[in-house]
Amino acid sequence: MPAELEQRLRATFGRLPKPGREVTARARAASLGALGPTAARRSRGGLLILVFGVAFLVGAGAAALAATGKLHVDIGARNLSSPPVVSRLSVPPKTHGIAVVAGGRLWLATRAGLRIEGMPATTAELSPRALYAVVGVGSSLVALAPGQRRAWTQPTGGPVLAAAWAPDGLKIAYVVRAKGVNQLRLIEGDGDHDRLLDRGVAAAKPGWRSNSLAIFYRTAHGRNATFDLFHNRRVLGARSVPGSVRAHARSPRGDATAVAVAGPHHVLEVRIVPRRGEPGRGELLLRVRAARSPVVISWR
Amino acid sequence: MRMRSDAKLVELARRGSRDAAAELFTRHWRSAWRAAYVVTGRRELADDVAQDAFERAFAALGRFDERRPFGPWLHRIVVNRCLDLLRTERRLVGGEAELERLEWHDVPSGDQELLDAIAGLSLQRRVVVVLRYGLGYTPTAIGELLGIPIGTVNSRLARALEELRADQEVSDAGRA
After folding, report:
1. Which class in CATH covers the domain with range B106-176?
2. Where are the CATH 1.10.1740.10 domain residues in chain B?
3. Contact A5 B165 (CB under 8 A)
4. CB neighbourhood size of B111 (10 A)
5. Residue A36: which of B17, B61, B161 has the nearest Cβ?
6. According to a count of CB atoms within 10 Å of the terminal CB, is the N or C end of chain A lower?
7. Does residue A96 have a pLDDT over 80?
8. CB contact at 8 A, A110 and A126
């Protein structure tokens, strides 16, 4: 009997499916891209000499042909190889932490020692100074304390799509998909007094007024709305147009913005937007494969 | 043409050969992915874990001790990444929230039962079962790979087989 079971185990492992072609190609490119600097430099050096040599020969030949009018040059789109995947999120300088949810996964890193890489999650939000985090996991909102301890869990009856911590750190507004509609809810920072504020809202991260007395959000019909917590009432605004950036977040000091921009092949890039006059596309923080699922950035 | 050993490929890759690194990838990718698939029980996680393990391994190739075999070193990274991910998830979710269902795509139904039973094992037992029967390591090699005594490996294997056998008997009785 034991031998029979062992044989069955070996046979079952032998019949396991193969990894997908696209996954394999991506992993191969990423792995080769992660080769140490020595390897990359040497091969690039060799490649450079080869390219230089070929360019010289082609150039010389082309000059001769062009002179005789027998050469037509057509430069098309370059076939770029897939970019290396950055799978380890780093905390940007002079900030407390950053969390990114993309492709249904969470990457989170804080100076207080919270680190999560690639865990299935629907949303995440850091508290002011990034001491705590709330994460949408399954049909719950989970609060994490430093040391990755679970502070509390609130069953939500559906996936949490977005959350926003109030600037005073005492309350969290969140959007949950429950009973077929998106609800805007409010919960205290210690997991108490969960209550419904509005139903039929957009699956987007709400914003807070700086005094923590009002929540800005969008209705399911695309209208801006404000929930005034002081007077406990909703005020509707004008129709808004959603932007092309999938998600964005301001730095804690308000002097920088991180954006998530979807690229080709379902690759999502999170970058710090360069300041006016700064060259380049901004510092790359994370590059991951992410389909059309919601994207969230929280930066403290 | 004679197949080059892993040690030779590692040496060449460290000196800058991308071809050698690509050959190492091709040689070990499927086994690493399958190990991650059985330990995590989810295809998407296996994709990420196996890729991440290769990235880490290749990035650290300069620090790799060439006298040691590459396969076990890579598989240790795979296993550690799986354990990190699953433990974090368990710590966060606990028993209160519903975990994602296991997904055994493209697997014959008879095998699915056994894979479900493996997924029901504790993480420590699941890992030794995968290393022993999925990757073919001896108990001694598993002990070295995981940094645990061989007696512990044997006891984890024995208990895992006991659990799987019991599970199989229940399934057979259910069908009868």
Report:
1. mainly alpha
2. 1-103
3. yes
4. 18
5. B61
6. N
7. yes
8. yes
